[in-house]
Fold:
Amino acid sequence: MAAETASPSDNEVVKLALEERSSFGLIVERYQEKLSRYVTRLGIKDSDDRDDVLQEVFIKVYRNLNDYDEHYSFSAWIYRIAHNEAISWYRKKKVRPEGNLVVDSEEVLAFLNNNEEDAAVRLDQKINAAYLEDALAKLDPKYQAVLILRYFEHLEYEEISDVLELPTGTVGTLIHRAKKQLREALEKYE
Amino acid sequence: MSDTQKQPNKDLKESVLSRLEKEGIEPRSRLYWLSHEYALWGAWGLAVLCGALALSVASFASLHIGYALYEASHNDFLTFVFDALPYLWLVAFFLLIAVSYFNLRHTKRGYRYPIILVVGSSIGFSVLGGGFLHWLGAGWYFDQMLGEIVPAYQSRAKFEEEIWQKPMAGRLVGKVVQQPEEVDYAAFVDAEGEYWRLNTEELREHDVDLLQSGRKVRILAATSSEFAEGSLYVCAVFPWILDHAPGLKEWRADRAGFIEDVKASKEMIHIIRTPSGEGRPNDIPPPEVMEKVASETSSRCYNLSVFKRARPGIVAE
Structure:
């Protein structure tokens, strides 16, 4: 009876939400934690600010539900709205985003050990989360965003392309450059 | 637990649903998003189409800026090109490419395409469309129409007319209004309605026929204080070709006509030098001798500054 217990897919929830407003609660439940972590990582540290931003994100998601194309990732679509809302929040506040990773040691370890793509980041495992967070915070916001989405939100290149509205090739280039910059920044801590 | 590590607000779902309810927020209709998307694609198509039109006018204007007779209006080819290039249309074309890039980039999946594809496709479609419109003669038509309805716009025909309506420089545009009553003379009215008495004695037969056809023509003439007021000594006649979308054939014919006129002025010297008129081309003396002869003859066209300027290049061809 697995079919009965399996939770509905994102696409199915979207269809339900379009028919019945209360079903939209499922989307909020499913994504509030991920998006909360993401906007925090983008630097919105204050919980009240974060709640305000998240509420706006979900209101926009609901209002724009018909714009979602089921052929693409819903996750990337909702992350894009959250990303844009966070950027708008920064613009309104006139402050520069400062990354705040909210990482646990496992995540940091996974990131440090990650040797995919060109293995541009070959880091000593002695480097701790605090150093990494500090180094990431000093990166250009566009580099921060790609690294956060790739290594902390675990999105695929195509999804990152959808979130940041960039060509997939550009995402690859940005990740490569971001890792190079990060490596250089971390060398100072060695 | 630090502030940044707090769990997300557990009431978020309730607050979002209650706000949706209270403010009566509904998802925007599918039609809204579709029309938004179609508007962007439509704006892209329109920008590409306008780009094509701009390119067709630019190509028409570039191909018909009077390369054939540039020696007649400018000191050298470079100053002529700088003066005559259709900057307005070239700028319009590149602006429209930027607009089409912006529109395509903002379509639902526009960001996924590499910049080279977005810009390349916009330029590519504009070039294809521009080529097709040029082939149809739309460039000339659009340029002409704008020239008629927008006073500030200088159409190619207006530009050409301005260049050729310079009596003091020996250039005129207009037509013969009266069949000559005396041999080697014609009554001519220029683009500004001024009347002129033209001496046509050194004209080639072909040019005389063209002049006397009564069609609008451009003429190159020698000017001198020796002439009576309102008189000109005509050395070459060219048809006015901007009353339709001219083809390269007419452009080439214009050039060929000019070369013939320059050469004819040289041959005229030779004939003057050998009164019997039996000279053969091989007998044409070297330029320095011809210059001397010219100064001693009554040939005004040989000494026409336009011909003098063009002669070295044309003789070398």
